[in-house]
Structures are given as C-alpha cells and as structure tokens.
Amino acid sequence: MNKTFLPLAALSTSVFVVGTAEYLVAGMLPQVGADLGISEGTAGQSVTAYALGVVTGGPVVTMLTSRVPRRRLAVGLMLLFAAGSAVCALAPTFGMLLTGRVLASLSHAAFLAVAMVITTGVVPPEKTGTAIATVASGFAVATLLGVPLGSLMGQSAGWRAPFWALTVLALAATAVLAAVLPEQPAPATRVRDELRVVTRKPVLLAITATAVGFSGVTTVFTYLTPLLSRIAHFSPAAVSGLLLTYGAGSVLGNLAAGKLTDKSLSTTVRGVFGGLTGVLALVPFAVLWQPSAVLAVLGLGLLATATIAPLQGLILRHAGAAPTLAVAVNAGAFNLGAAAGSALGGLMVAAGALRWTGLAGALLTAAGLALTYPVLPRGDDGRLPAAGRTAGRLVSRAGDAHPQGHGAAPF
C-alpha cells in the first residue's frame, strides 16, 4: 500500500468529522429550541458562534501551538474537538451549548492548517494539489452525507445524539491519527515569522480573494432551496435530489481541481473562478427552465469546492516555510466569505430579489478572480512547495519569504 495513503485517509476522515459539525445544528433548530426553551432564531446563533470561533479563534490557537510537533498537535486538536462535541451533547442550557460549539470551533481552522502542512510533507511536490484536495474532500463529503445524516439522526433520536456520534467519531479519528501520522517536528520558524508571512501583501491578497470569491457561492447556495422551489417550481423531493446532486458534484469537482492544481496553479485558479462567475451569472435565467436549472446546480456543485485546492495552494506558494498561520487564516476566510455571502443573499431575498442572487454572486466571484491576478505565479511549473520539508528555510526578510527553488513572489 502506498505509504501516503493511510495518513491522507486519516486526515480526510478527521476533516469529515470536523466539517460535519459546522452546519449540523442548522438541520435541528426546532428540536434544539424546544428542548432548551429558546426560539429557532436564537438556536441558529450556535451556527454563528461556531463560525466566529473558526474565524477568530483558529489563528490564535495556531499561534499558541506553533512550536508543538505536528502529529502531537493534530491529535490534541481532535481531542479538543471531541471535548467540545461532548459539552454540546450534555448541554443543559443554551449558554452551555454555545460554550461547546466555540470550544469545538477552536480546533477547526487550526486542525485544517496542520493537516495541510502534514499533507505537503508526506507527498512529492508534484502531487501536493491532489493531496490537498484529497484531505479537503472530507468537507465535501460532510456536506453531502454528514450533515444530512446527522440531521436525520437528530430528528429521530433527539438533537443530542448526533453530538454524541461526533464525539465518538472524533475519539476514533484521534486514535487513528496517533497511529498512522508520521513524526514531523515543530517548525523551526517562530510566531513572528508566521505573523510576518501572513501580513505580506501577496498572502493578504490571496486571503482576501478567498473571502470575496467564496462569498459569491454562498450568496446563492444558502438560498438554493427556495430558489429551486419558488422560481424553478421543483417539488420538495426533487429539491432534495438536486441538493444531493450538488453535493456529489462538490466531491468530484474538488478532486478534479486538485489534479489540475498539480498541473498549473494559475490556470486552475483562473478556470475555477471564471467558471463560477459564468455559472452564477446564468443562474437567474437557468432557473426559468427546469432542465437548465439542473445543469446550473450541477455546475455550481462542481465548481464551488473546486476553489479549495487552488486557493490553499496559492497560500502555500506565497507563505513559503511558515505556512501554518496563513493556512489557518485562509480557512477562516472561507467561513467569513460564507457568512458575508449568506448575509447579502438574505438582504436580497428580503427585498424580493431571490431570483437575482446569482448576479450578485457572479460579481463577487469576478472580484475574487481579479484579486488573484497580482499574486498568481508567473512561469507556473505546476508544482507547489512542500511546507513540511521547507521548515526552517524562511529567510529573514519578509519580502523574500518564498519557497526555495520555486521563484520569488511577485512582490
């Protein structure tokens, strides 16, 4: 068996567990509200609390643990997630539920960051994009299966049952990670090296492109169900089937983008964002005819998570030997973009412009594409740096912090 298979499979499975938690509550708001004596709107704030924990807490945890050996850190973060899930399952009050959600969220961005760093250390540079997509596919599968199955379990066995399931799965994932991950020492870089890198102009532009570009996806996706039912006139059963189609497309698109990123990072970034812009712009017109609406949903699914591998690859390209904090911040940028896109879509829906959310999304993804142009590699050789093997090679000047042998950053 390929020696990289088990580490990548363990990391992908762990990402699936963590990814399932983020939107799990959204499918159980009536049950949570009834049990804790709160409104559904108040219960929904537990999703917001998790997102804020990812955006703000992830980078802090990453900095505080920057000198911990990578395998030990991955195991510790999964234990933290398990503890947060257990607190949610036991929560007697809404305040305690929020505490558990925030506790679990603190491991989200930090775990994704360390998973990306470990991944780049166990595969050849020419396979980095594929490896990133393999690990990130855990999120796509969580959307496709984890969240729906968790919601179904919550409706039949009570909302606490899915959190107990997450706790057990997280503990199992912890044991597997401890058994199969290779030893990787803590990076020789210091916290100030990580901060210096994450504040460099190319890295900041790439992070901003992630937040802005991905917000275009969630402007539409958050309100895809009412769009398909009210405008395209699909039945509830057909809408459920289309959402599964979207999820399946997300898994395939993510994996395909990983392979394409290995061939050319720049071309993949342009292709994915350009494709998203086109599909989103067509959504308001595609939903007027059911066959074209089906194609639009499939296209959106294929391209939505196809953003993960090339955008994280872009961060790795410019972060050089101190990538952990930058990757964690970029993970938060995906969540920030999701929140911003959902908020914008909500304003449009409230204004009676449900059909036209696709045009707003297209403008955002086009803006994200424009932000990437100054930082896309020139003379792209299709290979990404192996962060796990470049640790300690960060040069002292922030402007020169780039992976050796891959050319200087554009700025």
UniProtKB/TrEMBL annotation:
Superkingdom assignment: Bacteria
Gene Ontology MF term list: transmembrane transporter activity
Subcellular localization: Cell membrane
Regions crossing the membrane: 45-65, 77-97, 103-123, 130-149, 161-182, 203-225, 237-257, 269-289, 295-315, 327-350, 356-376
Chief place of localization: membrane
Residue stretches making up the Major facilitator superfamily (MFS) profile domain: 7-380
Bilayer topology annotation: Multi-pass membrane protein
Keyword Phosphoprotein included in the entry's annotation: no
Stored Pfam families: MFS_1 (PF07690)
UniProt-listed Gene3D superfamilies: MFS general substrate transporter like domains
Keywords of the record: Cell membrane, Membrane, Transmembrane, Transmembrane helix
Gene Ontology, cellular component aspect: plasma membrane
UniProt-recorded name of the protein: MFS transporter
